[in-house]
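User: Hey, my collaborator sent me this sequence without any context and asked if I could get a structure. I don't really work with proteins. Can you help?
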Amino acid sequence: MKTLALVITLFLSLKFVTCEALDFQSFLILSEHNRTEANKTIYETYLWRTTVTPGNSDAIKWYEKEANAGNPEAQFGLATMFFKGIGQTKNLYQAAQWYKASADQGYSESQFLLGYMYLHGLGVPENKRIACDWLLKAAAQGDANAQFNVATLFYSGEGIPEHFARGLKWYEDAAAQGHIYAQNMLATVYNHGIGTDADKINAYIWWAMADTSSKLKVRDELDELQEAMTTDELQIAQETAAQCYQSKFKQCQPVLLQTASI
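Assistant: No problem. I've predicted the 3D structure and written it out in structure-token form, which is a compact way to encode the shape of the chain:
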């Protein structure tokens, strides 16, 4: 549906905690002797802890050491530092190259972010077809962000043929993992019957799930939908929504299938 907005979200928030200098220095010494676990600790420390000592400039050395050795986690971490400009000048081209190296080894987070970069032409030429290829790889591994974005591409027909059935499937998969934006879009397509039959019960359930987060404001949609529902429809929707939420979105579909024939 051309009217659907193409939304890509990038979750690259970093934790800011401290690390004792003595412990870190010990790992530096061990890493000079090619101790794998020591090197692993170093790049994990730099990825998540931006206030360690010595400063972030040394992080590049240790990330590159592991990344050049072919470690996909380190490649992902190094790419993220280039992408965010952590410890060095921001370099989207280098970020894309290291995400690619990691993605080629099947690292789903890198596959998603490489797809994101191709989608928006960040460090690489914009190419929605290639973007979709990488997003599909990550989506197939269960990455909810990738699933959401693949679904949106299928609905919008951006870079790939429009395919509502496949888009609906990926929205469902992401929604079942608690992805609130997928839950919102799933409710929207059910409410308006976009690529599927209009279904007030399903729309209510998934807007109710999205409403549990403070990030989205869907109360108006819920209230408007509720006014259009019969008493029986509302009761079924509310009972199913409660079970869906309590099961952390894992027991929604069986109930929905049962209510469909009522």
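In plain terms: The chain has a mean pLDDT of 80. You can pass these tokens on to your collaborator as they are.
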